[in-house]
């Protein structure tokens, strides 16, 4: 009996040994400011030696927690905008709880803490976003476009001042959670606290069809300051270019800024070959096109902290766009076995303007409750005039058009957010109205009116379970009352966004997103009157169109360590009631209109990768394969590759970017691409105020494409090479100056979502 008891004791001891050797501990606590208020933007980072153990944001009650820790020495860091950072090293020998109080940065200390410890290799995850930090080297750059190159999920182009996602999507840009109306030119990189990339926005943004958001979090200005920024860039020889300026004057209570720019584009020289076939005829053509574009822009912005709980901001924007294009050529028309040579000429002129006024107010209640109110008022006009001629031996075809279009619109946004039971809630509404007038003077068609009133409401909830699982639930509903011509539509549409992120530690994470949004038809798709100038084609809108519905699922795995960021992903998209062009032939005339008839599926799989090294720079990009499935058609797949590398040496920095996609597909067409959007940008920082930039674009050849459309008896082949999109060089200068007491202050930027009337393809906004 004694022997059995001894064996049992030994067995129990052996079983308990792993529990002793591999004991796991918990580190937790709270973080609040000197007034016992929670600071939800506080980042808590835990490191052991040079390895990241974990990273989290405090919850709505100021709590943080790290689990499954082993015995050893750890370093805990706290970082929050406008507050002094904290760093503490300690030995963990058991469960530990630490309470921290953070204090605001004093004015005299701002210079000492403007650049904190480098956190560029750290990434914080929420349910639907990733938070990145700029390296110490990036904070030294003269402009934000150079600095943001190292953010793994972004492709930043300094030459045309654009920010895109690695998959080509254009994000909504926010500064401190607010919409931007004048770009990010005035941002000083060293004042950037963090960059948040939101892959699945809440229902608050789904009304406008936003699928991704970039939120740049800034520090604060507290003393009187003034900022000057002038930049210009021009192609050599001078064919296109940009000139812009920015001035801001402010203090801790108010600011006023003026932003102005002008873009021009001359001598667009493109060559096109087309073959158009239908029952009874074949038409071939060769043509050349030239264009002139002018685009001035001016914006006045102001803000005022009228009380500790109330904040006001306003913006007034004027935008003007004018273009002129000429196209001449000729070809052969074969009809009833008879061939006729012809000459063609097209002359188009277009003038557009947009005026916008926006007013914003934010009231802060106690316990982190806020109410935001935004008023939008917009009006814009569009005048389009043109003539199309075709000269045959037997006749002359002439089509002249003259459009006088106008839109006015307005909206009121309300957003109320608060914390309850450890969760963050966001309620809001958006009331919007618009009125369109499309008047085609020359054709004698009746004036087309489009009116719309919509009421959009949403609710969002986000929170976390322990410190490893983060979730976001968001729902919205859109009530729309519309009249397109004589056709009335009253309907409601649901929107939704769901995200969940699980963090295994600071290195490995997984995320699953679901998004439901609606895409309303543009007014150009609703106008029932012919807008084509082609003698063999008719293009009409359909006033009975309804919004398309998009369901998007995305799953990804995220790895981040020692400068390496790797994100393999799978994305599935289902589009129901998709708006697609359809056509039919009558009397040898092809008529195209639009219907909600198509169900579209897209399967996209790929990997995003980035490596960042502070000493020399980084390299990144993505590669993937997406397959499109249209109704009653086999799947059509295409490879795509985007590569980006950047570096720096002393006062010199550079960026090389290129993409490759051989094919793209539509419902009834296939497009083969030539060339790429490749470019090399080199910047020399002469001093802290002046920078000189050289840019070479289209390094891999002239841009162009072959497009084939085939539907029923109708066939159209178009082949084009855009000569101005071939190798070119441009030179730019950037002058930046700041007052002696320059320090950033949190402010509101405004932007109306109004984009104006669209009758055809999108207007050129860059080069």
Structural class: mainly beta
Name the CATH architecture of the largest domain.
Beta Barrel
As for the CATH topology of the largest domain, it is Maltoporin, Chain A
Largest sheet: 22 strands, antiparallel, barrel
Distance between the ends: 91 Å
Mean pLDDT: 81
Helix content: under 10%
Please work out how many helical segments DSSP would assign.
4
Tally of distinct domains: 3
Which homologous superfamily in CATH is the superfamily of the largest domain? TonB-dependent receptor, beta-barrel domain
Beta-strand residue percentage: over 45%
Gross geometry:
globular
Number of strands: 43
Radius of gyration: 29 Å
Low-confidence parts: 7-22, 107-117, 741-746, 748-767
Characterization of this structure:
The protein has 767 residues and is mainly beta. It folds into three domains: 24-104, Immunoglobulin-like (Sandwich), CATH 2.60.40.10; 128-215, TonB-dependent receptor, plug domain (Ferric Hydroxamate Uptake Protein, Chain A, domain 1, Beta Complex), CATH 2.170.130; 225-738, Maltoporin, Chain A, CATH 2.40.170. Helices cover 4% and strands 64% of the residues. The protein has four helices and 43 strands. The chain has a 22-stranded antiparallel barrel. It has a six-stranded mixed β-sheet with strand order 8-9-14-15-12-13, with no helix packed on it. The protein starts with a helix and ends in a 29-residue tail after the last strand. 30% of the residues are buried. Residues 7-22, 107-117, 741-746 and 748-767 have low confidence and may be disordered.
């Amino acid at each position: 009996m004694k022997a059995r008891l001894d064996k049992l004791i030994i067995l129990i001891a052996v079983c308990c040994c792993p529990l002793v050797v591999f004991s796991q501990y918990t580190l937790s606590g709270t973080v609040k400011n000197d007034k016992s208020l929670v600071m939800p933007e506080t980042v808590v980072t835990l490191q052991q030696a040079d390895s990241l153990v974990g990273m989290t944001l405090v919850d709505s009650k100021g709590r943080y927690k790290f689990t499954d820790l082993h015995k050893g020495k750890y370093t805990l860091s706290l970082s929050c905008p406008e507050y002094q950072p904290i760093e503490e090293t300690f030995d963990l020998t058991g469960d530990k709880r630490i309470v921290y109080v953070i204090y605001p940065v004093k004015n005299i200390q701002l210079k000492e803490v403007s650049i904190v410890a480098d956190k560029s290799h750290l990434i914080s995850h929420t349910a639907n976003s990733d938070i990145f930090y700029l390296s110490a080297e990036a904070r030294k750059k003269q402009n934000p476009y150079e600095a943001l190159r190292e953010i793994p999920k972004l492709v930043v182009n300094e030459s045309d001042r654009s920010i895109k996602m690695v998959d080509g999507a254009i994000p909504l840009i926010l500064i401190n959670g607010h919409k931007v109306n004048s770009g990010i030119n005035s941002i000083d990189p060293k004042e950037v606290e963090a960059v948040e990339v939101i892959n699945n926005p809440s229902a608050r943004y789904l009304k406008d069809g936003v699928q991704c958001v970039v939120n740049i979090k800034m520090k604060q200005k507290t003393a009187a300051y003034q900022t000057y920024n002038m930049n210009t860039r021009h192609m050599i020889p001078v064919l296109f270019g940009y000139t812009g300026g920015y001035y801001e004057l402010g203090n801790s209570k108010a600011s006023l800024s003026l932003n102005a720019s002008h873009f021009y584009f001359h001598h667009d020289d493109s060559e096109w070959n087309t073959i158009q076939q239908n029952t009874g005829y074949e038409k071939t053509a060769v043509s050349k096109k030239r264009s002139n574009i002018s685009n001035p822009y001016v914006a006045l912005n102001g803000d005022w902290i009228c009380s500790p709980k109330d904040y006001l901001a306003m913006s007034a924007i004027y935008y003007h766009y004018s273009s002129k294009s000429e196209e001449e050529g000729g070809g052969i028309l074969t009809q009833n076995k008879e061939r006729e040579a012809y000459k063609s000429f097209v002359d188009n002129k277009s003038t557009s303007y947009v005026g916008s006024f926006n007013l914003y107010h934010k009231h802060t209640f106690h316990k982190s409750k806020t109410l935001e109110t935004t008023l939008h008022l917009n009006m814009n006009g569009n005048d389009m005039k043109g003539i199309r001629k075709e000269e045959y031996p037997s006749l002359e075809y002439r089509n002249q058009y003259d459009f006088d279009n106008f839109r006015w619109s307005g909206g009121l946004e309300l957003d109320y957010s608060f914390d309850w039971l450890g969760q963050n809630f966001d309620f809001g509404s958006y009331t919007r109205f618009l009125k369109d007038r499309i008047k085609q003077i020359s054709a004698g068609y009746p004036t087309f009116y489009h009116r719309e009133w919509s009421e959009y409401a949403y609710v969002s909830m986000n929170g976390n379970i322990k410190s490893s699982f983060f979730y976001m639930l968001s729902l919205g509903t859109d009530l729309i009352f519309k009249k397109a011509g004589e056709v009335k539509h009253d309907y409601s549409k649901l929107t939704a966004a769901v995200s969940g992120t699980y963090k295994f530690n600071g290195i490995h994470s997984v995320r699953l997103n679901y998004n439901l949004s609606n895409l309303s038809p543009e007014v150009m798709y609703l106008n029932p009157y012919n807008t084509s100038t082609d003698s063999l084609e008719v293009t009409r809108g359909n006033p009975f169109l309804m919004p398309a519905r998009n369901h998007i699922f995305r799953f990804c795995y995220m790895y981040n360590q020692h400068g390496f960021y790797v994100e393999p992903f799978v994305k599935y998209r289902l589009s129901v009631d998709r708006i697609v062009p359809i056509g039919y032939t009558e009397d040898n005339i092809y008529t195209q209109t639009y219907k909600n008839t198509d169900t579209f599926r897209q399967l996209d799989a790929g990997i995003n990768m980035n490596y960042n090294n502070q000493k020399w720079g980084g390299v990144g990009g993505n590669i993937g394969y997406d397959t499109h499935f249209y109704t009653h058609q086999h799947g059509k797949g295409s490879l795509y590759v985007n590569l980006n590398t950047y570096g720096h040496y002393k006062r010199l920095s550079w960026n090389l970017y290129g993409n490759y996609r051989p094919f793209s597909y539509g419902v009834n067409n296939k497009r083969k691409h030539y060339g790429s959007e490749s470019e090399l940008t080199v910047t020399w920082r002469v001093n802290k105020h002046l920078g000189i930039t050289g840019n070479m674009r289209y390094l891999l050849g002239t841009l162009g494409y072959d497009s084939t459309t085939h539907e029923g008896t109708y066939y159209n082949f178009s082949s084009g090479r855009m000569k101005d999109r071939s190798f070119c060089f441009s030179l730019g200068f950037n002058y930046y100056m700041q007052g002696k007491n320059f320090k950033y202050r949190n402010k509101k930027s405004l932007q109306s979502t109004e984009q104006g009337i669209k009758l055809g393809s999108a207007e050129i906004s860059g080069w």
